[in-house]
Amino acid sequence: MVKKLKYPVLAYHKVTKQWEISFTMLYPRTFERQMRYLATNGYVGKSLREYLADPKDHYFVLTFDDAYESVYKNAYPLLKELNFNATVFVLTNYLGKNNTWDFTPGNIFSRHMDAKQLKILHKEGWEIASHGENHRAMTGMHPDLVMHELKHSKEVITSLIDDEVETFCFPFGVYNAGVVATAKAIGYKNLVGFTEASRYGVISRSAVYRVVDGRFSVIRKIRQCPFDLFFEGIKEGIFHSFSLLSRLKQRFRKSK
Ligand SMILES: [Zn+2]
């Protein structure tokens, strides 16, 4: 149950003032408190690619799932000031569009970054990586579709930033031996999941949630003391199960 992550990787989603019923959004001021606290303690945020090329004790990896525009607007200026970089996981069928793929109570939608914003981040040194095309769980998909999601999203981002796309993040953090093998065959060097996921060489991450996580728990996630990890593990198990709602919505839609 208490499992140490191989690398200190944090997973964020939205950084926004727009309130919604969700554990994955953070208010900009909450995010700022966390980042400034880490900076004050000597930590430096890096993209996954940078970190793997040169892992240092005071480095940690910052990742943002789904590449929301709120991250560009509310996180990027602060991270630039602190000299932190990050990795964003892009959904190529949703560039500049609302997150209609997600379970969104009250129909409060969030926009994804567009091509221009991603290009700017790439120029600033961020890693632009793939999260597939449609944010579908790949474990129940036809192998041809899995291949298409992995390959086509990689091609779209490559042509957008004119750089190699080395990392893929599995939607909902779910995968199996088959999808991992396909992703590797296509040329992804790094594969990313969530905490519970650490098989087949997939890199695990600690998700940061609203309400339950503050600057102290974020630093605990990075430092990974066994005592803290125990509670972090339980928390994540509970909160991550909420993503089932999104998967159910997608299943319901498909069957209609
Ligand atoms: Zn996602």
Query: Can you give the helix content as a percent range?
Result: 40-55%
Run of helices and strands: EEEHEHEHEHEHEHEEHHH
End-to-end CA span: 38 Å
Q: Mind telling me the CATH superfamily name? A: Glycoside hydrolase/deacetylase
> What's the structural domain tally?
1
Strand content: 5-15%
Bound molecules: zinc ion
Would you give the CATH topology? TIM Barrel
Indicate the CATH architecture. Alpha-Beta Barrel
- The helix/strand class is alpha/beta
What is the average per-residue confidence, as pLDDT, rounded to a whole number? 89
Tell me the radius of gyration: 17 Å
Number of strands: 10
Low-confidence stretches: none
Biggest sheet layout:
6 strands, parallel
Shape: globular
CATH class placement: Alpha Beta
If helices are DSSP runs of H or I spanning 4 or more residues, what is the number of helices? 9
| Oligomer description | single chain
Features:
globular, TIM Barrel, alpha/beta
Brief summary:
The chain is an alpha/beta fold.
Polypeptide structure, described:
This protein is of the alpha/beta class and 256 residues long. It has one domain: Glycoside hydrolase/deacetylase (TIM Barrel), CATH 3.20.20.370. It has helices spanning 28-40, 48-53, 69-82, 115-123, 143-161, 177-186, 215-223, 226-240, 244-255; strands spanning 9-12, 14-15, 25-26, 44-46, 59-65, 87-90, 127-130, 167-169, 190-192, 206-207. The strands form three sheets. Strands 1, 4, 5, 6, 7 and 10 form a six-stranded parallel β-sheet that branches. Helix 2 (48-53) links the parallel strand 4 (44-46) and strand 5 (59-65). 42% of the residues are buried. The mean pLDDT is 89. Zinc ion binds at residues 65-66, 131, 135, 171.
